[in-house]
Amino acid sequence: MSTPLGVSHTNPCTLVYMTWMIDESNETIDTVAQRRQFTLERLEQLTGELITHVHEGAANGLTEVELAKRAGVTRRTIRNWLGK
C-alpha cells in the first residue's frame, strides 16, 4: 500500500480540520465571501506544500506518472510544477 506524498510511517502528520458552524438562514454575502477567501488561501497553502513534496519525490526518483497519480493531478501539472 502506498502512502500519500510526504507521509511516512515513522513521522505521522497531524491534520487540522476546520468546522464551520453555519446558520444558513442568517448567512450574508459577506460571510460567504469570507469563507470563500479562507478556502482559497488554504488551497494555495496546500498546493504549495504538495509542490514541495512533488519536487522531493522527483529528486528521489519517482516518475512523473507516479507523482501525478499520488498527488491527484495530471502529468502536465507535475511537469509545470517541476518547471519542464
Task: Explain what this protein looks like in three dimensions.
The protein is mostly helical and 84 residues long. It has one domain (1-84). The chain contains three helices and no strands. The chain has helices at residues 29-59, 64-71, 75-81. It is elongated.
For the residues shown, what is the average pLDDT? 82
Total helices: the number is: 3
Oligomer: single chain
Q: From the alpha-carbon coordinates, what is the Rg to the nearest angstrom?
A: 17 Å
Residue runs with pLDDT of under 50 for 5 or more positions = 7-15
Overall helicity: 40-55%
Task: State the order of secondary-structure elements, H for helix, E for strand.
Answer: HHH
Number of strands: 0
Structural class: mainly alpha
Spatial separation of the terminal alpha carbons: 29 Å
Strand content: under 5%
- Tally of domains: 1
- Overall morphology: elongated
For the biggest sheet, the summary is:
none
Which key features would you list for this structure?
55% helix; 84 residues; mainly alpha
Summarize the structure.
The chain is mainly α.
Summarize the helices and strands and which ones pair or pack.
Elements: H1 29-59, H2 64-71, H3 75-81
Helix pairs in contact: 2-3
